[in-house]
Amino acid sequence: MGRRHCSFYLNCAFLFMCSIGWISLPPVNAALKQYQFDIQVKNVSRLCHAKPIVTVNGMFPGPTIYAREGDRVQINVTNYAQYNMSIHWHGLKQYRNGWVDGPAYVTQCPIQTGQSYTYDFNVTGQRGTLWWHAHIFWLRATVYGAIVIMPEQGMAYPFPQPDFEFNLVLGEWWNDDVEEVVKQGNKLGLPPRMSDAHTINGKPGPLFPCSEKHTYAVEVEQGKKYLFRIINAALNDELFFAIAGHNMTVVEVDAVYTKPFSTDAILIAPGQTTNVLVHANKISSRYFMAARPFMDAPLPIDNKTATAILQYKGVPNNVLPSLPNLPAPNDTSFALSYNAKLRSLNSPQFPANVPLKVDRHLFYTIGLGMNPCPTCQNGTRLTASLNNITFIMPQIGLLQAHYFNLTGVFTTDFPDRPPTPFNYTGAPLTANLRTVRSTRPRLSRIAFNSTVELVLQDTNLLSVESHPFHLHGYNFFVVGTGIGNFDPKKDPAKYNLVDPPERNTIGVPTGGWTAIRFRADNPGVWFMHCHLELHTSWGLKTAFVVENGPGPDQTILPPPKDLPSC
Ligand SMILES: *[C@@H]1O[C@H](CO)[C@@H](O)[C@H](O)[C@H]1NC(C)=O
Ligand SMILES: *[C@@H]1O[C@H](CO)[C@@H](O)[C@H](O)[C@H]1NC(C)=O
Ligand SMILES: *[C@@H]1O[C@H](CO)[C@@H](O)[C@H](O)[C@H]1NC(C)=O
Ligand SMILES: *[C@@H]1O[C@H](CO)[C@@H](O)[C@H](O)[C@H]1NC(C)=O
Ligand SMILES: *[C@@H]1O[C@H](CO)[C@@H](O)[C@H](O)[C@H]1NC(C)=O
Ligand SMILES: *[C@@H]1O[C@H](CO)[C@@H](O)[C@H](O)[C@H]1NC(C)=O
Ligand SMILES: *[C@@H]1O[C@H](CO)[C@@H](O)[C@H](O)[C@H]1NC(C)=O
Ligand SMILES: *[C@@H]1O[C@H](CO)[C@@H](O)[C@H](O)[C@H]1NC(C)=O
Ligand SMILES: *[C@@H]1O[C@H](CO)[C@@H](O)[C@H](O)[C@H]1NC(C)=O
Ligand SMILES: *[C@@H]1O[C@H](CO)[C@@H](O)[C@H](O)[C@H]1NC(C)=O
Ligand SMILES: *[C@@H]1O[C@H](CO)[C@@H](O)[C@H](O)[C@H]1NC(C)=O
Ligand SMILES: *[C@@H]1O[C@H](CO)[C@@H](O)[C@H](O)[C@H]1NC(C)=O
Questions:
Q1: 385 lines ligand 2 (CB under 6 A)
Q2: What percent of the chain clears pLDDT 90, i.e. is strictly above it?
Q3: Cα(369) to centroid of ligand 7, in Å?
Q4: What are 370-404's pLDDT values in tens digits?
Q5: Whole-angstrom Cα distance, residue 543 to residue 524?
Q6: ω into residue 61 within 30 of 0, thus cis?
Q7: Which ligand is nearest to the CA of 136?
Q8: CA distance linking residue 104 with residue 88, whole number of Å
Q9: Which ligand gives the minimal distance to the CA of 447?
């Protein structure tokens, strides 16, 4: 830590008290949890700026949803802001109930200004940490919060019971109106400018100028054990996270228990969650917790570091905390070896039901590209594609179109493999960067209860880069991953079909591939996209139409009465 940073911190510590607080769990007995979410623009002060941002109930981050496995949750979202809104409950499977999944124009029309919509769903067969966020434009920059699902009454965690729990929501902050920043980028056909800060629970910490009292802090007691529920809500950055002087034991990812392992840092992609146990058994002092991007592509490195403080009880606020040793921003080998340690718990109680037989093989290439744009600065616009298709958003919800048999909204001819095989991760491809922009969204139709293997292959079209992919409506098993081109003859032999990690978001490595498997037992229209908002907005997305099953309880539920219309 540089001298300048030290004095910076001391200024902050002497002039302002750090906020120290417990997050205590509310009683969780009731089977119906009801929340009111008022979408409001509030003047929130961060860094050097106080500026109006879109919030839920005026809070940043927004309120935590607490539920117990088996609960019914009703969240009435009322939109008082000038923007269209929709909220996604990231990682909740929403069995047969895509109407409440949230992505705008995929499962619903937006909640327009002055309107309300109640997301009504049951939390079934899931427990752990998930999160919610706006799923329209880039509004999730400020509209997000944690979801904590406690195990069923009388069920313990399959790891040592922590004494306390905290949520740590990692985010990204722009000093200007994010929607304006994005508009500016789109006008030029270039990426919008980088964020101004990373944050932990909405606060950047003292390594940023003007952060003043904006440091999140937790107080711990010597000898006690803590569960940290860590969420990456950043728009465009995979993050390393570490706590100075303390190792962490990873026990859960994306609301699925894992085989515990100890690590001095974690890697967490946008959309992912990670629960870690921390034993407060070190010298009583103050320690920084820090988050900084991982970026191993040949792109500019953004190394802005968000910090928060872990403070032992009784230690005065003027003790200078030490910084953790985060992996270098381009530390590929840490990233690969960290991900390789993740394994499903796969116990009799929490088995890993990995599909062993595959009904449908899909191979999707991830590409960046450049399409003509006469009004853009360079005459071109950056785009992104899957199998060379840049996804076009429709004017109405795809799920409505599917359910009500509306014709002309989408087609189901999304190709199972790229149009022309090439050396995907060979030398950078800078010619032929045009992608296909069809007039209607192209989706893939999947038979009910079939087993799907999807290989996501990064390419060197313009540049290799790591892409965190998120599938709605399902968890999947990450059965294999590798660097270079996927080899369908050799690589499947190396799959882990016993205890692979089960999750809803997975980072496809830079210049590599990832194979996932899932059973398509949830009928509906389910979005799949890169969780880097930049790439989603460039078209790196598609959706699966999963057909109804033959049984009465295997069909999409009727839409709720208050479902917004377009
Ligand atoms: C937000 O608050 C700041 C500081 O209190 C003030 O200077 C600014 O005018 C406010 N902005 C709006 C739009 O209310
Ligand atoms: C949702 O909240 C709005 C605004 O308070 C209210 O008008 C509406 O009746 C509520 N909806 C339900 C289903 O309670
Ligand atoms: C949730 O569970 C309740 C009680 O069993 C049931 O009435 C309701 O229809 C369920 N809702 C959904 C969306 O499945
Ligand atoms: C953390 O674990 C590593 C090995 O994984 C070990 O070398 C190191 O000493 C541990 N650090 C602490 C503070 O326990
Ligand atoms: C972070 O970026 C700054 C400014 O570009 C640079 O001076 C510093 O060396 C970088 N740190 C690392 C760890 O890359
Ligand atoms: C990572 O970044 C450092 C500092 O910028 C550089 O010296 C090193 O060569 C890079 N490592 C790799 C594998 O690119
Ligand atoms: C677009 O043009 C600007 C200068 O006008 C240049 O700096 C930039 O590299 C160009 N971008 C691309 C993607 O060609
Ligand atoms: C849509 O078409 C299917 C198959 O033809 C039919 O079973 C279903 O009732 C139709 N749905 C609506 C809402 O008309
Ligand atoms: C793909 O490109 C890489 C790097 O240019 C090269 O090493 C490799 O041999 C190529 N593979 C094939 C099958 O052409
Ligand atoms: C993608 O499609 C465009 C338009 O048809 C074509 O020009 C380009 O070569 C294709 N690229 C790849 C990688 O298939
Ligand atoms: C899906 O298929 C599996 C394997 O054939 C079967 O065990 C299961 O009952 C089926 N699920 C449904 C909902 O039909
Ligand atoms: C809000 O959504 C409606 C329905 O899709 C659309 O007609 C309207 O243009 C949208 N408004 C804004 C400001 O995007």
A1: no
A2: 89
A3: 14
A4: 999 999 988 999 999 999 999 999 999 999 999 99
A5: 10
A6: yes
A7: 12
A8: 9
A9: 11
What domains sit in the chain, N to C, each tagged with a CATH number? Answer: 3-91+126-340 (2.60.40.420), 360-554 (2.60.40.420)
Gap between the Cα atoms of 500 and 516, Å rounded: 10
CA of 264 to the centre of ligand 4 (A): 7
Q: Is 405 in the pocket of ligand 8 (CB under 6 A)?
A: yes
Give the pLDDT confidence of 24-45 residue by residue, as tens digits.
344 445 489 999 999 999 988 7
What is the per-residue DSSP string for 511-542?
A: TEEEEEEEE--S-EEEEEEESSHHHHHTT-EE
Return the pLDDT at 30: 47
Give mean pLDDT, residues 7-15: 28
Q: How close is the Cα of 404 to the center of ligand 8, in Å? A: 7
For residue 262, the CA-to-ligand 4 centroid distance in Å is 8
| pTM exceeds 0.85, yes or no | yes
| Mean pLDDT for the stretch of residues 279-297 | 97
Q: Please, which pLDDT band fits residue 212 given cuts at 50, 70 and 90?
A: low
Six token digits for residue 271: 């959309």
Is the shortest distance between the CB of 450 and ligand 11 below 6 Å?
A: no
Minimum-distance ligand to the CA of 518? 11
Mean pLDDT of 421-442: 93
Name the residue with the closest Cα to ligand 3, atom 2: 122
Q: Among all chains, which residue has been given the structure tokens 């979410």? A: 37
Torsion angles phi and psi, residue 179, rounded to 5: -65, -35
